[in-house]
UniProtKB/TrEMBL annotation:
Alphabetized Pfam families for the sequence: Glyco_transf_5 (PF08323), Glycos_transf_1 (PF00534)
Binding site for ADP-alpha-D-glucose: 15
Family designation: Belongs to the glycosyltransferase 1 family. Bacterial/plant glycogen synthase subfamily.
UniProt-recorded name of the protein: Glycogen synthase
Record EC number: 2.4.1.21
Lineage per the UniProt record: Bacteria, Pseudomonadati, Bacteroidota, Sphingobacteriia, Sphingobacteriales
Organism: Sphingobacterium corticibacterium
Function per UniProt: Synthesizes alpha-1,4-glucan chains using ADP-glucose.
GO biological process entries: glycogen biosynthetic process
Length: 470
């Protein structure tokens, strides 16, 4: 079976969030199971593309509106990621440093999708399944069926994976002229509430859609940023498949990015040594429980609650913990956190920005990780944390609810709180600190979570089962 994963993110080529981690791992695990899985992404002027060798394998020209675009397809020659990686480069459109935040983003993604299908047609490549990831490539299922030039792909099955339904790629109908010529009688498949909505289009036109956890699939029927009725009407072709983690990369026993390696048996001493090194580096007290937050500063992640949570904790002298923040995003949230650093020296430390290696150090050193999300389709940080013996403190929503069981429940191994507010979060943190302070409990919960299997093997097979059904 030949499957192409189409995405604008893929680790380590270009990463902004969990989408990149999924696309950078799932195809490799599928290949282990006998599937010929490829990944196709835009070209980025980033270290990965500069440090690896790519060979041009195809080129072509098409019009987007009245503008002529020339594209080139490059293949990474060594398959160093464990799967064939193809990049599409268009001068001025798909050759930039960053993934997002350009004013012509709609034009970028239309060009990427058009070039992708143009290349497949000209090269006579016809996969069995195209798995499209998020709204940036949500027009592909429509174009394969109804664009004049690409109807040869009408019988190719499409799976659309929703990583985050809050972002839908809305664009005004004046962008419609940029699309490849299509059957205008089908314009309604592009429309939602008077706009072209690529996410809605994908759900209408794909053969099946998946979400990155079963819990998130259920939530989309009730909270999908205006698409609740669409998800409900298309529920028969929806599947919830929880994300996995790449346990070859996220493995404290072999991780080259942490000071001291450890496994389940040596986790007590191993984490203690990592914590000591980390706390010395950032001026924190290694004898205190260490709580961390890792991720984007965004309201959907509950990051706006962090300043209030920190103040609530440290305003009570009885709360003896250290806190480390690693992340970037909303400038106001970052400014609020920056202001607190001077107020709580020796108790609070932070690194503002994206730092992959530092994230590994934090997982290895921290005792607890906080995820107060308002929206969390799957969440990977809690999975990484548990692999490293770091206890998750999470809001019970989406994939967090699916993957973390509260210690108050039989066989539980984390702390779950109901609402995305500082009161519930601080209460859960207090429960966790009290729990791990009790003799022997910390190590028992650490062993339990480190032995959980959240690898991609099971999830990759579920995707393959879906492809086979289609």
């Amino acid at each position: 079976m030949h499957v192409i994963h189409l995405s604008v993110e893929c680790f380590p080529l270009a990463k902004v969030g969990g989408l990149a981690d999924v696309v950078g791992a799932l195809p490799r695990y599928q290949r282990k199971l006998g599937v010929d899985a490829w990944v196709v992404c835009p070209y980025y002027d980033k270290p990965f593309t500069r440090d690896n060798h790519f060979s041009p394998i195809a080129k072509g020209t098409f019009f987007q509106g009245s503008e002529e675009f020339h594209y080139e397809v490059l293949k990474e020659t060594k398959d160093s990621l464990g799967f064939p990686l193809y990049l599409i480069r268009i001068p001025g459109k798909l050759d930039r440093e960053e993934v997002y935040c350009y004013l012509d983003e709609a034009e970028q993604w239309i060009a990427f999708q058009h070039a992708f299908l143009h290349w497949l047609k000209n090269s006579q490549i016809k996969p069995d399944v195209i798995n499209c990831h998020d709204h940036h490539v949500g027009l592909v299922p429509f174009l394969m069926k109804y664009a004049d030039d690409f109807k040869t792909f009408a019988d190719v099955k499409t799976v659309f994976t929703v990583h985050n339904g809050q972002y839908q790629g809305w664009m005004n109908w004046n962008k419609g002229i940029l699309l490849p010529a299509f059957d205008t009688w089908k314009w309604g498949l592009l429309d939602w509430d008077g706009l072209i909505n690529p996410l809605a289009t994908a759900i209408k036109c794909c053969d099946a859609f998946t979400t990155v956890s079963l819990g998130y699939l259920q939530e989309l029927y009730e909270q999908a940023n205006g698409l609740e009725s669409l998800f409900s009407s298309e529920a028969a072709k929806g599947y919830g498949i929880v994300n996995g983690i790449d346990d070859a990369y996220w493995n404290p026993a072999e991780d080259k990015l942490i000071p001291v390696n450890y496994d389940v048996e040596s986790s007590k001493k191993g984490k203690a040594k990592n914590k000591k090194a980390f706390c010395e580096k950032y001026g924190l007290d290694e004898t205190l429980p260490l709580l961390t937050y890792i991720g984007r500063f965004a309201t959907e992640k509950g990051a706006d609650l962090l300043p209030e949570i920190i103040v609530d904790i440290f305003s009570n002298p009885e709360n003896k913990i250290g806190i480390f923040i690693l992340g970037s995003g909303d400038v106001q949230i970052q400014a609020n956190l920056q202001a607190l650093l001077a107020a709580y020296p020796g108790q609070l430390a932070a690194f503002f920005g994206y730092h992959e290696a530092l994230a590994h150090e934090v997982y290895a050193a921290a005792d607890m990780i906080l995820m107060p999300s308002r929206v969390e389709p799957c969440g990977l940080n809690q999975l990484y944390a548990m692999k490293y013996g770091t206890i998750p403190i999470v809001r019970g929503i989406g994939g967090l609810k699916d993957t973390v069981i509260d210690v108050g429940v039989r066989n539980g191994y984390g702390f779950v709180f109901p609402e995305a507010d500082s009161t519930d979060a601080v209460s859960a943190i207090g429960r966790a600190v009290d729990y791990i302070g009790q003799r022997g409990k910390m190590q028992r919960i650490r062993r339990k979570e480190m032995e959980l299997d959240f690898s991609w093997d099971k999830s990759a097979q579920q995707y393959i089962n879906l492809y086979n059904r289609l």
